[in-house]
Amino acid sequence: MLFRYKGSYLSYIVFYTGYYAVFALFGSVLSVYLNGLGLSDQEMSLILSAAGIFSFFVTPFSGYLHDRARNQKAVLAVTLALIAGLAMVFSACRGVGALFLLNGLVMSLINSVSPVCERIAGSSKYRYGVLRVWGTIGYAAGAQSAGLAVQHLPGWALFGLTAGACGLCLIGLLGAQVAPAAQPHDKAPTGAGREKPPLSALLNSPPFFLFLAVGFLFAGCSSVNNNYAPILLGRLGVEAGGVGTVLFFSTLTEIPLILFSHRFMDRLSGKVLTEACLAMAIGQYLAYSLCRTAWAAVAVMVLVKAVCSTLYMMLSLKMVRCIVPAGLTTTGLAVVATVNNLAGVALQNLGGYAAGRWGMGALYGGMAVLCAGGMLLAAFLKVKNDEPVFSAPQF
Fold first, then answer.
1. What is the per-residue burial (b if ≥16 Cβ within 10 Å, else e) of 264-286?
2. Which of 117, 146, 149, 180 has the fewest CB atoms lying closer than 10 Å?
3. pTM above 0.90, yes or no
4. What are 222-240's pLDDT values in tens digits?
5. C-alpha angle 379/380/386, rounded to 5°?
């Protein structure tokens, strides 16, 4: 049975469902949990910004380690075990300093797994969409469970569920095939090994840096939105359990996008997809800035929030595969994730100040302006659309 399980579609189902459930259980309503501890907007923003600060160091190191490691499964297994243990320690803390430290450690470790998951989905024998869709289902279930846990159960239960989801992910990891990092396209001499390109190869690509600049603005605003969207709903009268339900249905709207990614992601250029992400973000934030009723905010959140962030995640994989030299795919994704996290640190603290001083409307209006700036930068983005990532013929 173990032999049949290895490399099976079931193993990938368990792996992706478990990992994205971990992501949702720990992070989706963390702002609501912290708000329930009586923390101010500034204190909450400080704690949440720790994820970006720690990820700035942890994510690129993890990406480099995965590109070089001979046993990538062992690295993933240790990372998941650390997440589970630290999440339980987090549940026992109440001080701002301890919460800052532990949130930074846990979220940076969770973020460090994400580029590896994307590379596995893009290089597996199964098509990207039929693997990542289980991540969507796992995140939706995790978000709903997190909302209910915060509303009805003691605080430690939320983080106990996080540890349990780590165990589920480990079970999936036993069977999933984690292929070595992609090798360069250039053929090595007969009988010789292929050397991986140096890290300096990342520094010689202006389109990569331009995409990082655009991503800084988009991902920074998206990070603030992920943390403040539950708070926005709460201030409009939605309880924690209802917030989880909204995030559940919002996440499910990703499913058609992911399942049919092979029909459009490889056909459309990176520039067009980048502009589509930014346009959706601008519309979403303008709507939030003007919303005065819960139903209006819920409708926008369900229809746009998850679709926008998921499209950007797939876009990042596409851009890295098209721009970054083969053999540095995970490192390139880790650099993108690091810039995203740095943007989250910068804008999270600014967002907390803006929300506390001028209110949620001003916060989201400012984010719409920043994404409009990203749209201007995207006009200069030119990348060859010659790398098939989402249209593998298998399954």
1. ebbeeebbebbbbbbebbbebbb
2. 180
3. no
4. 988 988 888 888 888 888 7
5. 100
